[in-house]
Structure formats: structure tokens, C-alpha cells
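note to self: the first set is below, dont mix up w the second
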Amino acid sequence: MISLSILDMHCASCVKGITEALEGVPGVQQVAVNFAARTADVEGAADEGALIAAVKARGYTATVDVDPKETAKATLTLYQLRLKQAILATIVGIPLLVDMFVHWIPTPEVAHRQWFWIVIGFIVLGMMWYSGRHIYRGLWQSVKSFQGNMDTLVGMGTGAAWLFSMIVVLFPATIPTLARHVYFDTTAMLLAFITFGNALEIRARGKSSEAISQLLGLRPKTARIVRDGGDSDVPIDQIQMGDQLRLLPGEQVAVDGVVIEGDSQLNEAMLTGEPLPVHKQSGDKVYTGTINQSGSIIYKATGIGKNTTLARIIDLVQRAQNTKPNIARLVDTIAGIFVPIVLLIVMLTVIGWAIWGPQPTAGYVLTTAIAVLVIACPCALGLATPIAIMIGVGKAAQLGILIRDGNALQAITQCDVFVLDKTGTITEGKPVVTQVFSIDGDEASVIRIAACLEKQSEHPLAHAILAYAKPHESLPRLDSFKAHPGLGVSGIIENKTVLLGNRRFMQQHAIDFEALTPDYSAAVAQGKTAIYVAQDGKIAGLLIISDTIKADSKAAIQLLKSAGKRVIMLSGDNTQAAQHVAREVGIDEVIADVMPADKIDQVQLLQAQALKVAMVGDGINDAAALTQADVGVAMGAGADVAIEAADIALMTGSLQSIVDLMSLSKRVMRNIKQNLFGAFIYNSIGIVIAAGVFYPWVHMLLSPIIAGAAMALSSLTVVLNANRLRY
């Protein structure tokens, strides 16, 4: 995918023209133009030069894969330019506007003062070149490409006002006496209001991209590399895969890696949204931008450049901000045909006032035509959806929620059913020892034996036993070890033969279970895993291992149900284990013993009932179901393939994030509706007033200057309303 930055795209109608231009380039498969972000994402095998040339042919400047920091600088420069343009237009326009009321400048009819107005006319023309050259350049391009936009309307309006005024000044006899008015003030003040409004919009839009800026700010510039001759600081771009890096307290992790020495507490709030530090030791992963809070560690680089978790997050957020929900595509279509409709309305307005208007007809025709041209610009309409989506996706990223597709932000609240995987979604996905039973009451001895044997094992349950044994005494010496796949392990500890494994393993060695108390049966009945320990042919005890339920799973599930959502647990685990977890968290519907290939069938079965389905999972076996669902949600700690298949990734690994996302989604959609309603009302009522429909009753016309101010204010209102989502 090629990303283009098009900073001089300044109206909603530009989107249609740029999209058509890019789609016409050979090799382009799909184009997504974001008016709010001033970017275009192009998928396919197109040549970069051809894409830039296509955009340039429409009168815009495009750059490829620009660093967001450089884009921010360019945006600031553009803001400063628009501000200067607005100031100049105001300086020129204010005296002319005052003269409209006090008439301190002699009228053009005074022959010996005609030269004075000629000078004013050329001063205004110079101001038009400086303050409005981007508008007139756009007008010329729109004429050449037969593609109307905001420049068409504003350029025609201000240009007509200046041209009519110059005719009055140079050839006053050709204009009826009552119509001999100059409109230089209209031209100047229109450009002042429009460029000032554009400057404020650019400034506010920069705030809208704050989420990306914050993420970019997390990237360290240097790292401390460990070499034979000692540590040295090097730029990030010089780090290679496999390099060993030292991380001291207070420093940021430079690249993704794995700890090879030391242990510490790292703040991963930028990744997960969780404020509590995470303990890191040998073998644990560390992520770019996270902050070391205590000890010193050495880690090996496993992800650099664009292959770090932070870089992928930034890429996902940017892509999501550029996606278009269905409602946005409809609005783009309307905005694209809006300009021709406005020009038709202007023609009807001119004809109406020319036939039925009072004298001086030319003055009324010019005033209404310019007012309609200016007030009808569909900028607010085009901004309404993308600006809200952009800010909403950025806000979600700050909450530890990555949205890969902007449509998912809209669709998540529309889902009828939430299908939740059990392991790693509702539960931690990390088996832990929850209970220890001992025949003679010496539980510590049972733990030591189990841990001593499991030190030699790579089985997932071995990690749970070793983690549980850490706080206990040092382990005895293991004299021999043998693994029995699917059953357990055996060995000799302190001249005693010991066994560790499942019930079948014990039965193969004729171990008698009668010595065990009935207490352990309840745990086994709940579907938990029992690991038996035998010593010299006799049962010594057992360990109960289970996957603990996440602390906030029950509360989140209850909130989903209270919101009217149907919640189903879909698990490959046995029925006993699944039912037990379901009871603990309040889920009534459970589908257990489901093979990975069957999960997608279960989702399709629900969809066949005309239900919209959200699938939440974390494993490779969930990937197909995540893709099939209307909205796929992956837990951030899950497999990469599951995250890639999903529309949304919860970096916190918490179901509470789904509830937070639904709340944010409702706010975003409500904000979009507010923006669209305001924009439609503004354009509808504004055009009617500007055309002078109410003149027979109020005997007043809307000044083109007021129309220009209203147009600028409408766009600014939409941007400011969308920015409320940031808080």
C-alpha cells in the first residue's frame, strides 16, 4: 500500500476528484481518500510517480510515505500561511467595509477620482493573488477537469465581485446609475473569513491527529548497545536483529526484544492502557516505547524498524483513520454532485432576480449569486464523518484498543450476539496451580518433587508448577529423568522413584488412589486438571491446575447482557470445564468440545438466523471464526494470526475494553449524526436565505460577507464538535 499526503486538499468535493484521478492510474486496485487527514491510501501495483502526477493534474500536491512528524511540520507551516493570508485580506478589506457605511472614499462617478478606485482595484487584485491564489488555482484546475469543488464556488463568487467592481470603476457609463456599487470589500472580506476559517480548521485538525503524534513521541531516538569493548549509544536505525541492548531504570525500550539477563518492572501503559507495572525476567518479551521503572536488564532485539509492535500499532491506527464507513461513502457521493447542483441553483437565482427583482437588478443579482456560491460550499458535510472517525480511532488507541477498520467502530454496537472463546479471552490463558493435596499433610514436599521433575520438561503445565514452586525451598537433586509423552514424567530423587502425571499414568504403574481424601474430587468435577505425584509405588499427593478467570470478565459480561446483547461461550475445552467457567461469569449459553474447524460453522449458524455476530478470541484456532464474524475482536496477548484476522485488537487483553469500545462507538456515531445534521441544515437553510427567498417579507438580503463567515464557521463547528470525543 502507498500512502500519499495531500495537504492542499481543502474541500469535500476534492475527495471525488482525487479518488477518480488515482483510480485512473494503471495498477491501482483500491483508493481511500481521507479529507479530514488530507491523505490517500492506494492499494495495488501502481507506480508512485504516476500517482503523484495524477494528483498534480487535478491541481494538488502529493508526497509519498511522509513521516507523520514531517506532515505535522508541514501542517503548521500551512496554518501559518493561511493566517498571514487572512490577516492581509482583513487589512485590505476592513477600510473598504467601513467605507460602505461612511462613504469616506469618493465614488467612482467622480471622474478625477476614478484613478483612486483603479488603484484600489489593483490593490485588491494583489491581495487576491496572495491570499486567494490557492483558491483561483483550484478554480482553474476544476474548469480544466470539469470537476467542481469549493474553489469553483468561492473563486467564481469573489472573482465575479471584483470583475463587476472593475467594470463599474473603468466603464461606469455601461452600468445603470442605481447599480453603480463596488464590491471590493466583499471580495476582500470573503477571502479573509474563508482563509481564517481554513487556518482554524487546520489547527483543530492537527489536534485531531494528537493520538498519532503521542504514539510517535514514544519512539526513542537512541539505544545502549552491549559490545565487547563496553556499552555505547547508537541511533535506533543502526540496531540490527540479534543485537544485545542494555536498559537502565527510567529508560524506554528501544526496539522489541526478549530479556536475556536481569529482571525489572516495566510500565506498558502505552501498549495496554494498564497503569500497573509488569514484571519482566529472562525469556519475557519487551516492547518499543515501554518504560523501565526499576532494575537493569539486557535484552536481544527481535523486532526493529517497521516490525516493532509500536510501529504496527501506528500503522493500524493510521489505516483505520483512513477507512470509510458506509455512511461516509454516501456523504462523499453527495458532496461530489453538490457543486453542479449549486451552480444550477445560482443560475436559477440569477434568472429569477433578473426577471422579477427590483431595480437595480444587477446589484441584486450579483449579491444573491455570490452569497449562494459562497454559503453552499459542502466543506462541513465532507468533514462530518472522517473527522469523527479519525478522532474516535485515535481515542481508542489511547485506551489500548486498536481498530483496523473504521467500519468496525460503527458495527460493534450493532452486533446482536457476542461469541466469546474461553481460554485466553474469559480466562487468563495461563494455567496456574490452584490447589495442592498431600497424603501426609506435607504439601511442600509434594511441590518440591513435582517441581524437581518438571525442571527437565517443556510441557506447558511444567511452567505452571515451576512458577508455583518458586517461593518455596530449594529443589532436591534429580538423579535420573524420563518423559512419557501423553502421560507424565518419572525419575529418581534422593534414591526414591517418583512419578508425576495423569490418572492413566498412575494406573499403568498400579498406583492405589484410595489414600486420597474425597476433597480433591470436587476440583476434578469442575473440569480442572489433576496432576498426581507418586513415590516408591504409593500416591503422595496431587496438584490441581486450572486457568483462572480474568478479574473483570464477569463484570464485563454482565454489562454486555444488560445492554441487551446475547453472550455465548464457544470453547474447545471439555463440557465440565466450560460449564464451570460459564457459571462463574454468568453466561447461560455454552457450546463446548468444539474443534477449531467447527468454530466458523457455529458463527455461520448464528448469521443464518439474521443475527450480527461479534467473535472474540485469541488463538490460532479462532482466526477463521474472527474473519467470518461481522466484527472480529482479538485479545492483544493472543496469537499474531488471530490479531491479523480481526477487525479490532484489545491490547489490554480485558473484556472490559469491549464495553469501553461500545461506549466510544456510540459517542462517535452520535457525533457523526450531529455533524451531518448540522451540515445538512446549514446548507439547506443557508442556500434558501442566500437566494433571497424571504426577501418579499423581510426586504433584506444576506450579505456575501456574512455568507462567507457562516461557511467558515460551519466547518470549524464540525471540527470542534468532533474534538469533544477526545475528552
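second set (the one i keep forgetting abt)
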Amino acid sequence: DITDIHLPENKGKGFAMATGIEQSQSEIIVFLDADLTELSTSHFANIINQLIKPIVNNEADMVLVQPYVTILNYKINPFKSLTGERSVKRKDILPILGKMKNSKFGIETLINLYFQATGKIVKYVLLAELDHLSKFSKTSTLSASKQYIKEGQEIALTSFNNFNLISKVIKNNLNKL
């Protein structure tokens, strides 16, 4: 089931996502950004299927969907884990629900750090029909630049506030060597 939730006050992306989790009863939670473009019903169904299937088949604990521009762009994109299109097992994300509420645009960073720190399996899926409007196409260059700077600050603050998770991620990666 898909439920549209309207919040009376804008308290940030992290708060909105946490509220969605709280109100959901589903075992798998799917997040989609509101600025996806060119979505037909079949495209939407395909995106949902690609997000859910790896979790149902126990291939992943979290699935991140990326626009398929070119393989080269995808492989070198340092921001690919900041996608808003993702799915997670509800039970896996509940432990950070409280932190999510204050993370604002650092929400994806928080979720990524938590899943990496706890050794969860993350899978990336490329989809040709997925496209976002950039802030530069929705507003003036100055306004878009200010919004990106604010988001960057919120991401940096989330990283700083969760240094313990970063330490665990580093330790996990060193143990793999």
C-alpha cells in the first residue's frame, strides 16, 4: 500500500522520512524523492520492483537506485549513495529513527553510515527511466547554489554528529584487508 502523508509543518526531510516509517506497517520501506520526472505507471512499478526485489530475495538489506546515465559516470559519481530512491527493511532502520528526525538533508548520509557500520549489505541498481530535476532547473542559479550549500552543511553536520559510525565503518573496512 502507498500512503500519502501530509505534515502540517516542514521539519526537514529526515523528520518526514522518520514519520513515514513510524506510520508504516510494512516490512520493507521504500523512499522516493518528490522531484522524479517523466514517470509513467509502468516506470513507477519497475522502480518499486527494482527496489523491493533484492530485499525480498535476501540479496541486500538496503537498495539504492541510481539514474543510468553512463556506466563511467555511475562508477565515478561520489554522490551516488545520496540518492533519495532507496528501500530498507523496517526492522533495520528502526534503531536510528530518533536520529533521523533531526538529520534534515543529512538523512541519506546517516542511513548509509548506519548500514555500513552495522555490516548491512547495500546494493545499487541502475535504471534508465529514472531522472531528477536539478535545483538549477527548478529555481535561479543563486537560489539553487544556496540550497546546495545548505544541504552540504547538513550532510557535514550529520557526519560530524555520527563520528562513532564513521569509526565503525573505517574499522570494518580495515578488517576486510
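remember for set 2: The beta strands are 28-31, 62-67, 86-89, 122-127.
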